[in-house]
Write a structure and sequence with these properties.
CATH superfamily of the largest domain: P-loop containing nucleotide triphosphate hydrolases
Shape: globular
Number of strands: 7
CATH class of the largest domain: Alpha Beta
Order of helices and strands: EHEHHEEHEHEHHEH
Low-confidence stretches: 49-94
Largest sheet: 5 strands, parallel
CATH topology of the largest domain: Rossmann fold
Strand content: 5-15%
Oligomer: single chain
CATH architecture of the largest domain: 3-Layer(aba) Sandwich
Structural class: alpha/beta
Amino acid sequence: MPVVDCRVVCISSEDGSGGQQAAERVAKALDFRLIDEDIVERAAVEAGVEEMVVADVERRKSTLVRLIEGIGTSGVGAGYVLTPPYAPGREPASDELRGLIRSVIEDTAAQGKAVIVSHAASFALGGREDVLRALVTASPQTRTRRLADSLGEDEGDASKALKRGDAGRADYIKRFYGVSRELPCHYDIVVNTDKLSFEDAAALIVQAAGGARPR
C-alpha cells in the first residue's frame, strides 16, 4: 500500500545503482524538491563556512570532518550548538556530526514535499509516518560496469572505487546511527536496477509513495 500522506521520500543508494537518476524522476513525478548536496551546503552556509568545503559532499566522512573542523562555535538548525573549535587533525565526535546534519534533514522533512538523496536520511527520519524510505541497489557487476563507463576507467579501477565507497557508506551508517549491518528491512521498498531501468525503478517508488507513474 502507498504511504498515507507521504510528504518526504528518502532514497538511499549504492554507487552505480542509479539512485540519483531514479531520485530525479521521482521528484519530478511527485512535484517534490530534490535535496542532495543541499543538506550539507545549507549546514555550511548557516554555520558560516565557505561552500567549497562541501564540494566533495559525496565523500561523506572526509567532507563532514573538514566541515565541522571549520565551523567553530556556530550552531545549525533546530537549536543545535557545537562545542568549541576543534584542533586541526582531531576528528569531532560522532554525536556532534550527527546532530549537525540531522538537524538540517529534520528541518527539510518538516517543510515536506522533498525527495532526500543519501546522507542516511532514511535512518534519520525512520520514525516519521509520512516518510517513504527507499533503497536503490544493483549487483556489484552491474555497478562496476556503470561506474567504469561513466568515468571512462577500466573495470578493475572502478571495482576498487566501489569497494572504497561501500566501505565508507557502511562506516557512515555505523558511526552516525549505530547500525552495524544495513538490511532490506530498514527500508519500505527496495528496488534492484540490474534489469529495471531507472525510469521503472522511479515508477515503483512513486507508486509506493502514492503518486502517479512518472512520464
